[in-house]
Q: What sequence folds into this?
């Protein structure tokens, strides 16, 4: 018999589902960003520009963005859990081959394939939670999944960066993939079978209608725009932060890579945001996150490693507050065709990472750090204006869903 209420805190399957989604967040985001901390080392080893090295991140997120919506649609037919598990295992398998590539072009191609493989996890994880978890506990469960993604993103930088102090980037990437594979296996062992999923008959006409329905929802469209703008700014900041710390402040490769420990700020704030949204409403917490990002950027322009790191920490915390709220809001708004809605949100999210990441790299290469931060500030300001629109448009109807 299908449980119409969904899993509640205290249920054994609730605990298994949250731990499994936390683990798959670790594995998938580890795979997505595993070369980001290695970018300066890749530039040195291959003689590549920062913008060229950034393609090892942007190729993965770009292909991920293109594959997310198809993966989310497939999950409507074959089930969220099955798509997530297959996707994570494929991504780890591709990742295991990357340390052996001969050129940076081959590395970029491999990363594109890895981004394609991993798409099924972010495409379906939020829809899985929205399906299986009771609405009362959904913001908290969503926040815990986002916390897993932040920790996965953190470890995908810290593990390779730590290995760089002793070995080459190849060893860093290989050891990192061993960790990601362990998390993927843990997910397979723990993820409970879906009880609230009903397979959907897929037709081209029905999918076009589903996509159009979400695109014509002003609140949904605003949330997609916020994802594009904020994720683009966030990834760009971390893409080139290592060059700033090494070239301007004299950090070693391992020490520069250790700055990614600031992701722990995001792990905390994303988990906090879910509970705060239940009490204060999504709109207020969303704007708190975006405002924090905007406040942080002036600190990052100061020619000091202390203020640069402090500003990056504030930006990180604010970004994950906004992302946790926006992603959960999309799942709550999508009473119908939920997988398509979350897929579209994440398409915008990763397109922002890929497109803004490449453009900001060109700005950084040609005009320097300050010009790049000004460019990122423009993206955050646009996100803030969009957030005001979303908050006003949603009003009482959605603010405390």
A:
């Amino acid at each position: 018999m299908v449980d119409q209420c969904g899993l509640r805190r205290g249920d054994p399957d609730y605990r298994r589902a949250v731990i499994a989604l936390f683990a798959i967040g670790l594995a998938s985001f580890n795979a997505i960003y595993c070369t980001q901390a290695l970018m300066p080392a890749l530039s040195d080893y291959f003689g590549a520009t920062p913008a060229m090295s950034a393609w090892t991140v942007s190729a993965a997120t770009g292909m991920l963005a293109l594959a997310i919506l198809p993966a989310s649609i497939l999950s409507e037919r074959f089930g969220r859990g099955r798509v997530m598990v297959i996707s994570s295992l494929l991504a780890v398998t591709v990742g295991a081959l990357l340390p052996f590539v001969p050129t940076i072009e081959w590395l970029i191609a491999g990363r594109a394939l890895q981004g394609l493989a991993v798409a099924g996890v972010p495409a379906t994880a939020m829809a899985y939670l929205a399906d299986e978890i009771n609405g009362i506990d959904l913001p908290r469960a969503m926040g815990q999944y986002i916390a897993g993604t932040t920790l996965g993103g953190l470890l995908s930088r810290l593990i390779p960066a730590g290995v760089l102090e002793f070995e080459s980037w190849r060893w860093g990437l290989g050891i990192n993939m061993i960790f990601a594979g362990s998390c993927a296996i843990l997910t397979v062992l723990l993820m409970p079978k879906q009880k609230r999923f009903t397979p959907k008959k897929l037709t081209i006409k029905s999918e076009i209608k589903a996509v159009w329905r979400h695109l014509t929802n002003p609140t949904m469209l605003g949330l997609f725009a916020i994802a594009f703008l904020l994720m683009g700014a966030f990834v760009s900041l971390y893409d080139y932060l290592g060059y700033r710390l090494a070239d301007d402040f004299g950090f070693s490769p391992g020490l520069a890579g250790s700055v990614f420990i600031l992701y722990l700020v995001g792990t905390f704030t994303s988990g906090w945001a879910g509970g705060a949204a239940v009490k204060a409403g999504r709109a207020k917490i969303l704007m708190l996150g975006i405002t924090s990002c905007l406040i942080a950027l002036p600190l990052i322009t100061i020619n000091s490693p202390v203020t640069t790191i402090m500003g990056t920490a504030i930006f990180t915390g604010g970004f994950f507050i906004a992302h946790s709220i926006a992603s959960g809001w999309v799942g709550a708004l999508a009473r119908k065709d939920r997988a398509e809605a979350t897929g579209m949100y994440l398409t915008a999210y990763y397109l922002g990472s890929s497109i803004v990441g490449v453009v900001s790299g060109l700005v950084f290469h040609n005009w320097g750090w300050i010009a790049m931060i000004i460019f990122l500030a423009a993206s955050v300001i646009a996100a803030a204006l969009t957030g005001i629109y979303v908050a006003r448009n949603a009003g009482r109807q959605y603010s405390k869903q």
User: Anything to note?
Assistant: Residues 12-398 form a domain with the Growth Hormone; Chain: A; fold (CATH 1.20.1250.20). The chain is about 80% helix and 0% strand.
